[in-house]
Please model this.
Amino acid sequence: MTRTPPLPRIVIEPMVRRALAEDFGTAGDLTANLLIPETASAKLYFKSRGTGVVSGLQAAVLTFALVDPSVVFEVHCPDGARVRKGTVIASVEGPVRSLLMAERTALNFMGRMSGIATMTAKFVAKVAAHNVRIAATRKTTPGLRALEKRAVLHGGGHTHRGSLSDAIMVKDNHIALAGGVDKAVKAVMKGADHMAKVSIEVDTVAQFKKVLKHRPDVILLDNMSLDDLRTCVTLNKGKTTLEASGGVNIRTVAAIAATGVDVISVGALTHSAPNFDIGLDA
Amino acid sequence: MTRTPPLPRIVIEPMVRRALAEDFGTAGDLTANLLIPETASAKLYFKSRGTGVVSGLQAAVLTFALVDPSVVFEVHCPDGARVRKGTVIASVEGPVRSLLMAERTALNFMGRMSGIATMTAKFVAKVAAHNVRIAATRKTTPGLRALEKRAVLHGGGHTHRGSLSDAIMVKDNHIALAGGVDKAVKAVMKGADHMAKVSIEVDTVAQFKKVLKHRPDVILLDNMSLDDLRTCVTLNKGKTTLEASGGVNIRTVAAIAATGVDVISVGALTHSAPNFDIGLDA
Amino acid sequence: MTRTPPLPRIVIEPMVRRALAEDFGTAGDLTANLLIPETASAKLYFKSRGTGVVSGLQAAVLTFALVDPSVVFEVHCPDGARVRKGTVIASVEGPVRSLLMAERTALNFMGRMSGIATMTAKFVAKVAAHNVRIAATRKTTPGLRALEKRAVLHGGGHTHRGSLSDAIMVKDNHIALAGGVDKAVKAVMKGADHMAKVSIEVDTVAQFKKVLKHRPDVILLDNMSLDDLRTCVTLNKGKTTLEASGGVNIRTVAAIAATGVDVISVGALTHSAPNFDIGLDA
Amino acid sequence: MTRTPPLPRIVIEPMVRRALAEDFGTAGDLTANLLIPETASAKLYFKSRGTGVVSGLQAAVLTFALVDPSVVFEVHCPDGARVRKGTVIASVEGPVRSLLMAERTALNFMGRMSGIATMTAKFVAKVAAHNVRIAATRKTTPGLRALEKRAVLHGGGHTHRGSLSDAIMVKDNHIALAGGVDKAVKAVMKGADHMAKVSIEVDTVAQFKKVLKHRPDVILLDNMSLDDLRTCVTLNKGKTTLEASGGVNIRTVAAIAATGVDVISVGALTHSAPNFDIGLDA
Amino acid sequence: MTRTPPLPRIVIEPMVRRALAEDFGTAGDLTANLLIPETASAKLYFKSRGTGVVSGLQAAVLTFALVDPSVVFEVHCPDGARVRKGTVIASVEGPVRSLLMAERTALNFMGRMSGIATMTAKFVAKVAAHNVRIAATRKTTPGLRALEKRAVLHGGGHTHRGSLSDAIMVKDNHIALAGGVDKAVKAVMKGADHMAKVSIEVDTVAQFKKVLKHRPDVILLDNMSLDDLRTCVTLNKGKTTLEASGGVNIRTVAAIAATGVDVISVGALTHSAPNFDIGLDA
Amino acid sequence: MTRTPPLPRIVIEPMVRRALAEDFGTAGDLTANLLIPETASAKLYFKSRGTGVVSGLQAAVLTFALVDPSVVFEVHCPDGARVRKGTVIASVEGPVRSLLMAERTALNFMGRMSGIATMTAKFVAKVAAHNVRIAATRKTTPGLRALEKRAVLHGGGHTHRGSLSDAIMVKDNHIALAGGVDKAVKAVMKGADHMAKVSIEVDTVAQFKKVLKHRPDVILLDNMSLDDLRTCVTLNKGKTTLEASGGVNIRTVAAIAATGVDVISVGALTHSAPNFDIGLDA
Model:
């Protein structure tokens, strides 16, 4: 997988600024103020403490830049790189005070984003034999969606809707309120912006058949059995994109992929990935 | 444990506003716009899909209030309450469009914060037999520290420094740069604000003895063996607060508690708690 | 055309707040401060001074609400309504000072948005005989895209990409840099998120034929002659959505629509619509 | 007319930041991400596609700088310069991805501001034979007043009140509520800050005579006939500044200027100027 | 002097929000959280502890409203009222936790603003026998100008330029750089917006004579002796507004007023007024 | 006293940005625009006009940097330095327009912060013979707490709680609501975060004795007579930190220090320090 280009700085700068503001309070780093001579300078290394995929480096670079532009941040393993225990991911060199003030915030970004990239890579590895994508959902940490979706890309996954205003997804409650699946799908196909894709969620094969006739861009097969998934794939004959979702986990994902669906979306990638452990060592 | 009072709204409002802005883009909810009649109204229920502790309700309440002040949010199980699979945590009633627009953001807050509260409660339960506190660290999600620290309280844990400017923590790199432990501790005891506590991190019993003479408010025993922890507790004789940290997990925490330390701090509470599953059902 | 639901308040509130801040400076309304008794109250009427379509009311309502929550804003003709010279669109009643302070900002929103809705309605009327959509582009006023896209909907038009991250549009410069049209289209079809539509821009019938083979969601026919447009429509046979753009104006739009394209996009709707004149009278 | 100095960056930076945020959403430029090699670099030229006056360059420069500080922006025709079809206004050189991401936002600023400057220059040209100023009003686009007022200067016009707190303008509704013109003017002359100018609006020659006795700094002659304007000029004998306003357009402005008023204010400059067409070409 | 109307809430809300954010950190009020029962409610009274003029109440009202909308704030002595030791200025009633959280911030606003109003009133009293105004300068606390200028009005003083973009003040360094006083004044009179007043600073009677010929709106007599001030007043014969400034203090202001100048501007009003002591008592 | 390191830029940048925005309005510096040639450049000197301690330089440096990065700011006497009348504190060199635009804002920061540092140094000098600290309170200017607390450090003083969430202070009203001093102190000692200090306020020697038994970190002796202070010091025998507060002024502070308390907190340092006069001269 080729590397994903960095996000525009303007998108992540507010995230970094508020993380630093939150950590500095009204006095900055009380400890460093008292102990670290203004002239002390050092070089520290971000080292991986496990096996995984790096992400969040862009936020880490910006964290140090906003704390002290004189700090030199050198990237050894860019976002998307696979690392093992002990791999040096990057180094920072500059005034010790600045390094200490930025350390925690930078690690908080890197740990979370690398955690997401690493979990994604595990899911992707499980389905490597199949022509299927692993995709993230909108179940992201409030305020960090851009970085988290990017972390999924770094892990080899794909994104999904970026927001409620990017594409159309019709779920069961929409259908109920719109007066049935036919009416709902027709209304959506007619009213949708010509640049917005339409996805319809179905729970049963019967619903799937009804919806397929309307040829939406995507049909979302929610919480279906493997048998039902296979039936839908067979019926579909490549007419629309099929996405499976619901209760997907690392043990079930390969079987789901084997049904022949095109996309498997996994909320856990962004809402339940454990931190990836990275240290900042001398 | 009595319930923790809500945070001032002014502290969490910016978090909720940016989460909603992120999810609404420039067009709002394309799907609801096309399908949901302006007059349709409904009552939906937040239901727990597992056993755990509720947190994040305050952010959820604010999410709906900011989307549509006419929505009525009724809390059945407040932040800090223990719930089981199927427990109704809260209900929202109002225009369906507003409910759908706010749903994902509210669940993202509740899922993450309840996940933290639930993991905290598990650690707390493991050490119930001991007079010890489980505390969170500064390893929080960038931009959400206030809510995450509060979630730890809801789970029965305690907080720690809120920021670098709240208290003084001297770690090994500070000591090295300050010219040794004696010089470092002296400098800190002399310079520290009289309202700021001082904590000194030690790795060995030898260091502990050196530091104890200075009587800092807290000594942080980092990555020590159980034997060493016990030795420090014995030497301490209640003179200062002893905090254990480093690689604490749900399997090791009880044994650490049994050594007699006063506080055990756990980064995983805020950086690796999996989402707590909550649904919004009709 | 049914009315478009209002945008979430959270999307437009920052626009209104900065407009008011810009107009109030550090002293508020010097004139009202000196002349209007605190107790004076009045009812004023927004009256149309021409024939057109109303838009921007939502921002106007919020303008008065932010200046003074005690002002009562009554909407007679909602966003999307057609009005004639003299039609009363809405009324505001409350303290005169508040009415005067909010007046200009509210009218600035209403005049611009109603201007866009009105121009859109004129384009829509010109193509009423054809099964074609009039769509806006990203050529919107910096900072006001959400409101301006909404104004296009109020005028009976459609939107388009909301932002660079909503959908994929491949233009000639992308193709050149990607090493030719085949390589570019393949790369995009392979890499695109499954929820993001793909549009490819072509300038000639020859390019169109090449691109059509890849079946992107949309082909954008840029600055083509009517003859070429007709040829593309014939070749397309309904396989993809065809969008015409480039130098469309009120005199040429009907002929373009008659070629059978599906969408005509018009930058002028948002970048060159003259103000729609509305007065606030006693 | 000498060139107007640029606005302080701090005034326009928020405008540019929110325009970019609006256009980047949570993923940045999906298309460039997929197609443009990170190493591709290019030089592109802003070319005028008509005859007019340049404005908005400062915002365009900042747009590119915020997207990518490595982009070199070279100005050939500064803000205020007159250009013809084909004139190269400026060039940008740097990474293609950055150029494409910033392009639309920069052009949106330049097109609108150059449109305003160009319309202003047309009004100014019409009154060149007279000793009169063309001035803008507060009828500006919400959130962009500073740039739009500057565009009027670039076109050879003048500004007016920057905000409600800059100067005092008494209109008919103020007079009515203050208990008549004499009371109103007296109250204002007495209470006004010594650094704030006072302008009184009149509709008739009779009112003009009453107001002139109080010698306000400016008398605004609203919607008067050419005859009445001439009468006021004659009566005034240079005692105060006379400003004509109301329904001024490009066909009537010369005759109004010929009456001898000092200032003609024109809302259309900022609320109805069509976009000035500029392209970004290889 | 009649009371000044309140500032638009939108102008002061950001000031109050950041003051509260600064005081709440990431945990809110640790003390109240631990000690005050959620149900405890109380009524507290703002009492003056000295003789002076009230100001800042509007910010105090908003402080409590933002902390807890259920708090009832009752104003007994509005902004601008004169109070003595023991006077009850206002009361607040509601949940004790909310009262304690808002107390310090509200008092910080009231103490500073009442301090400014009180000092202003003392200067105004000293010049009561003369037809002269006491005016504030731009020497205000960064970020609080709107409130501080308003406090000067509450004390019976007047404001001045609100900002660099409100009016024109030509000082000696401008004159030097512009090539002498004649050139400078001409340039300004020609270029100034017709709604912006022009003030020219002079240090000597000789300069005064030169400048008077140009009839600027205001001549600022900087650091002149009483004799020179009198000479300028005599020469002026009411032609322009004369403002004295420079080293004015409570002991010299009456003598300066007696020279016959129209305005005396005093930086100390906003940069050196001591806090006015107000308590919040049960 | 060694110099305090600068605050992180991210903490003070918002303060400087809003101060400049407030002073620039929508047009920037009208006067400089008209009079100062774009090419004029100069070097100006910040000169002390009295005897005192410098503070606020960091904000001044940032003010010029944000207005024009090409301005060279040279610091001669850093924050914390003692200066006399005529001492050159710093110089700025660059475009005259930029210098004039930034001047007032920079001086407003420097004047206020140096005023605070200077007043603090006077208090510190008065108590030099005693082993006591002078500390600031939370009575700071809304929005400027970080800079003002830093100014106190520059003057040789100490800070205190940075915010309500930094440490615990129990006052009389807390005690009353919590059901007496014993209950209150117990609740606090039990519930307090292990990194948060606890201070208890007492008014009488009797209360002091009750509280001392609980050994809080600090006991605040509020408004006590010198005799009572001495009694408390004697009883305390160094067990806890004793802080005296209430009505401390420059005439009483030495006697209070002589009682043997550890800390004297003085609200006036931040709420009533007069401006320190600094000029910007050629």
About this structure: Chain D has two domains: 9-124+274-281, 127-271. The mean pLDDT of chain D is 95. The longest strand of chain D covers residues 41-48.
